[in-house]
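Archive transcription. Copying these from loose printouts into the bound notebook so they stop getting lost. Printout 1 of 2:
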Amino acid sequence: MTPADVSGIVGGPDPVAKPLPGGGWVASKCAWSSPLSSFLVSVGTSASLGAFDPAVPDAKAKVADFKQNVSAAGAKDVAEIGDGAVLGSTGLAAYSGGTYIEILRLSLTDDQLVQIAKRIMESL
């Protein structure tokens, strides 16, 4: 995903993407920020997910875990994003094959979260 992709979704100037260290289930992480928006994207792989928590061994299970954790706040399934996606009050989780993404909302609308998740999944 490029800064121009993000700007096209959220408006305003191109945001700055700052890579952050991974850890735990996170294989890589990136913070995006601009005057109009900010969000955090974390990516887990089959290897990083499987090594972190045997109870949540893969991307599909991680999305189900996210849904359970945010269900009190009205989590809902979202169609047409990877192999499955869930939108909650804190953000959005999705998976495609063995890859899991989680987007922490910070200052995005539901529609912007969905569009960003679709764009990320298209680039996998």
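Printout 2 of 2:
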Amino acid sequence: MLEFVRLPERPRVEEVVFGPDLSVARALARVRPGAYYTALVMRADGGSARAEALAGMPLEVTPEAPPESFDLIALHHAVGGLVESAVAAVEGMSGPAADGQQARARVVRALRAYHRLGELEEAARPHLLRALSGFSRTLSPNGRIVISHHVIESDLALGHPLDAYADYLTMARRWVSEAGSPLREVSADGLPPQWWLCLSLAGAADNDKLVS
């Protein structure tokens, strides 16, 4: 995906981080060495190890967002974290961002109950749309928000219901389409829509299709 979003030579990239995974940073270091990279850490786990690993990559790692807007905002396996955060907010819990696995387990138990009652979309939709709207305000005119998702066994073991979990991006796509969002989908031929969602600002003049 990084090769097909037509990034500038030294792009400004923000990753929304819910875990210790470094896939985006590693891929960015290969595709655009010297890129400016900022992590918006939503769940503090493995922070020191992450910082040490990033220090060894050919990236300009910035602890805070630069004053300019971002060419790419990456949410790699973050949609599940956003759904968890939505449930935590509705339930008045401290949420998965602060208290580790025990807090996450409580949140995911509530998430399963919402799903069983058919109320998960109602709980999650406003939170996810607010998050995407906030990200859109820091996006460059031809920038992209790229959301990727995949099944992680540890999330299923924690209690995410598989039928909802595998459908998170399908739901998110529908919510963006129905909400009159400032964002529009950019189709990416060759990438399965169940696991990939690429968005740009609705008024962007760039091409509206990516071909892989």
